[in-house]
């Protein structure tokens, strides 16, 4: 029996009604809160920062999965731990010393994640796979919600799953970008453990039912 988790991306929420949207996720069948932090340098967009995250974690009752799209993320590891992040994901492309960064995240009591841009080969993670709790496979180029899913993601997920199994690791595979009811089942079948969904959830008129439906499809 599959147990694919759903992580709505707060980037697509209505920031003028943020508490309402956080409560919606609390009440839904969603498993995690996915929080996108962008610095306008690593990606060509700026999202939101620490004060907003602090207010989200005040109300959120589920795992806080923070996706850092920032350069030199080591500078902020302690701060994100103190703000209540449970999983802290850094980009492979933004770290000079990934092994050290992963240890620093775990030393703060968080799970350590690594995100891969669409052009980054999963084989580059082989030597650190046993140190990684979660790999976030970007299925769009990071920086914006609402983009269309890159089809090459399926083969990437299969390759990553093989790498994880070959090394006896327990790393989770998360898919981020363009997830909908159209690709959720195929992604779960390819080996995805966690599906991030932003616009698909927040553009829906009934968000609670949309999350429920997505979870059912992903676990069918
Ligand atoms: C993109 C972000 C995603 C984004 C997903 O850079 O990392 O988490 O919010 O949004 P959708 O589901 O709309 O593609
Ligand atoms: Zn994200």
From TrEMBL:
One of its GO terms (cellular component) is cytoplasm. Keywords: Carbohydrate metabolism, Cobalt, Isomerase, Manganese, Metal-binding, Zinc. The active site is at residues 36, 176. Its EC number is 5.1.3.1. A divalent metal cation binds at residues 34, 36, 67, 176. Binds 1 divalent metal cation per subunit. Pathway: Carbohydrate degradation. GO terms for biological process: pentose catabolic process; pentose-phosphate shunt. Substrate binds at residues 9, 67, 143-146, 176-178, 198-199. Its cofactor is Fe(2+); a divalent metal cation; Mn(2+); Zn(2+). It is an enzyme of class 5 (isomerase). InterPro entries: Aldolase_TIM, Ribul_P_3_epim, Ribul_P_3_epim-like, RibuloseP-bd_barrel. One of its GO terms (molecular function) is D-ribulose-phosphate 3-epimerase activity. It comes from the Bacteria. It catalyses: D-ribulose 5-phosphate = D-xylulose 5-phosphate. Belongs to the ribulose-phosphate 3-epimerase family. Catalyzes the reversible epimerization of D-ribulose 5-phosphate to D-xylulose 5-phosphate. NCBIfam families: PRK05581.1-4 (NF004076), rpe (TIGR01163). This is Ribulose-phosphate 3-epimerase. It comes from Gillisia mitskevichiae. The gene is rpe.
């Amino acid at each position: 029996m599959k147990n694919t988790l759903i992580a709505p991306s707060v980037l697509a929420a209505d920031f003028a009604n943020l508490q309402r949207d956080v409560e919606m996720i609390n009440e839904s069948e969603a498993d995690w809160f996915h929080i996108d932090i962008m610095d306008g340098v690593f990606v060509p967009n700026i999202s939101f920062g620490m004060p907003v995250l602090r207010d989200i974690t005040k109300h959120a009752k589920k795992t806080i999965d923070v996706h850092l799209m920032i350069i030199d993320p080591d500078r902020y590891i302690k701060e994100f731990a103190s703000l209540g992040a449970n999983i802290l994901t850094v980009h492979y492309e933004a770290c000079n010393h990934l092994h050290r960064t992963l240890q620093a995240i775990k030393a703060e009591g968080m799970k350590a994640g690594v995100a891969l841009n669409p052009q980054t080969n999963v084989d580059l993670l082989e030597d650190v796979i046993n140190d990684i709790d979660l790999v976030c496979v970007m299925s769009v180029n990071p920086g914006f919600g609402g983009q269309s899913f890159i089809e090459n993601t399926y083969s990437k997920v299969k390759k990553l799953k093989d790498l994880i199994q070959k090394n006896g690791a327990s790393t989770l595979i998360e898919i981020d970008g363009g997830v909908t009811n159209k690709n959720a089942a195929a992604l779960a079948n390819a080996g995805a453990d966690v599906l991030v969904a932003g616009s698909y959830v927040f553009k829906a008129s009934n968000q609670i039912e949309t999350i429920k439906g997505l979870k059912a499809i992903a676990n069918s």
